[in-house]
Amino acid sequence: MTIGLVSALAAHSCAGAPLVHLIGHPRVSRDDAEIRLVDSGMRLLAFVSLHRGMIDRHLAAAELWPDADDVHAAGNLRTALWRVNAVGVHLVDATRTSLRLATDVQVDAHLLGAWAARIISGTVSPHDLAYPSWDVERLELLPGWYDEWLLLDRERLRQRLLHGLEEMCRRLIGAGRCAEAVDVGVVAAQADPLRESAQEVLIRAHLAVGNRAQALRAFEAHRLLLRRELGVEPAPRLRDLLALGKVGPRVERPAALVPSAVVR
Predict the structure, then answer these.
(1) Segment 98-117, tens digit of pLDDT
(2) Beta strands in the chain (DSSP E)
């Protein structure tokens, strides 16, 4: 999602380890230096990275090259594996029957999924509430790839990140960091303009910072979009929120999480 947040999470988890980037432009890096992979090698690495644990080689070949017969698919897999391991960094463990991601390799999708899970569950640290610059385009896993093995993971991660952004917005409001909450709310709302829960946290953030006019504009834009795209009106709770001009109950957070932290 954001380069700043991913880098911070990776450094906090295992500094200096190879990092597989699957959100946005697929690539591999280590210590901010890019490791170049050809397309077939990157596709194999992406498949192995998303399928945690051991993977049967025949299954991997069939999933990655569904239009090839078994012999050609197995040959394609051997070639792709050679290309992955020819970059000078050990990325994939392989035996005659199975594959798995090397143990010290990190994956941005896993780091961000774990981040969102901590935000949602409430087991956050000051690092988790840091606010780097966010990029809506980086909410999607491997954009432009339409492989069957990818689609479920893409939607699962997208939903988790959206829930994480919404909860982060609420927690920033509760911590008194309302301007940052507005920025996070804008990203969540832009990522899925029809998502009412994202619009709700954005409106709450605007109200929390004292910008009732901005809250009204956000509501009106959402109302018009819902009417045009779905033929429905916003949920009554959004109208009630604006009518009362409230931000909801303050979310209590440990004092250590209140000061703003910025990831560079």
Answers:
(1) 999 999 999 999 999 999 99
(2) 19-21, 27-30, 33-35, 55-56, 92-94, 98-101, 106-107
